[in-house]
Amino acid sequence: MTRKRQSFLTGVTSALLVTVMAVSYSESASAETLLQALSSAYSNNPELNAARAATRAVDEGVPQALSGYRPNVSASGSVNHTWTDMDIRNGSDSSSDSGSATLGLNVTQNLFRGFRTANGTKQAEAAVLASRASLKNTEQNIMFDAAEAFMNVLRDQALVELRSQNVTFLSEQGRATRDRFEVGETTRTDVAQADARVSLAASELNLAQANLNSSRAVYQQVIGNLPSNLQQNFSPDRLIPSTLDAALAVALADHPAILSATYNADAASFDTKVIEGELLPTVTLEGDLTRTYNFDGATRATDNASITGRVNIPIYQGGRVSSRVRQAKQVEGQRLLQLDLARHQVRASVISSWGQLTASRAVIIAAEAQRNASQIALSGVIEEQRVGQRTTLDVLNAQQELQDARVNLVSARRDQVVAAFALASAVGKLSAERLGLGAQIYQPEEHFEQVRDKWFGLRTPDGR
Q1: What sections of 277-317 are H helices per DSSP?
Q2: Which of 81, 94, 133, 196 could be stapled to 99 by a disulfide with Cβ–Cβ 3.0 to 4.6 Å?
Q3: What CATH number should be reported for the domain whose range is 2-17+29-70+124-279+340-451?
Q4: pLDDT tens digits, 81-107
Q5: pTM
């Protein structure tokens, strides 16, 4: 029974080690740094690209609003043919055959629309600025997600390596325990304890490998490619203010979420003014030019031209416009409350991230001390076991304490980097420019300038 169990544990251990070695070998083909991973996410992440497309769509609101300053031109045409046949009482017949064709051109120019065009343009421009700030916020979130995915893979790779080393160590301890049992130096209990620890270590290694596969999948989702020999050679500390008060001041002044909420409040205010403009008079100038061709035996053409000024004064619209004004004011109030909420959320995020970063640094110091002490303790317990002063269980417990310390240290180092990126994002400084990415920086202003004063054309600036 013991030999079967030994064979089973040896087979499980060997299979897991082969899997770990295969993964490590496949990942050693090329190296990828953290900044390279962030650059890939900045260029390829579908969520970020979708946000850019949404910003370009919002840009079109400005030329739509500006169209209120421009004339509306339309052409019309009609053809008419008439047959007439009259039967007179004295028996004679009278018939006629005539036709006409009319071509017309109409030009309408708004002269005054209750300031709706001006306020509508300002509303659209505020919406563009809000969309750009929202895009910056999305960019920050993607950069943080990419950094977190990168560090999760690094952590899980290190944990797989630690679990693998633990399996190797415990397997060797189990073999040595069985050898001593065969010569009567230990008991069957010691052998069972060693085998139990090997089984536990094997299951932990299997779980670590599963977690690594999950982290690799998330990495590919966020960054766009599978991780390969990752190297963490970038510290986000330069993005972080030196004090909490400075971090709060920077965040409350420049965070994209706050700027987006501010511009959304401005857009809501201008929307109220646009609707109120529907209660004011409108003045338009209309010009018509027509040519009519009559076909009644001889072709004749008649030209007509007219210029008409129109003034429309709204008096009562059934209460619909008044209700829309009240509704717009409520939306404006909502946007102002959302601005306050954004400020509170940013403040809370900065304070929380600052605390997590401070705590993670302290945890690293404690974890390093724990690891060093556990290493010394394990070496001492092994030496004492050799002279009969310690049992196999003492060695297994000391190894478990060292394994826990190593795992804690790996996790703490990952948590420190992630907390630093979280704080940089909370402050509002986790942008491609501040990171110094090698990717081409997306400039939303370029598309806006291309479409702002465009009078006609169905193709987008990129040719679609």
Answers
A1: none
A2: 81
A3: 1.20.1600.10
A4: 777 766 666 655 666 677 888 999 999
A5: 0.82
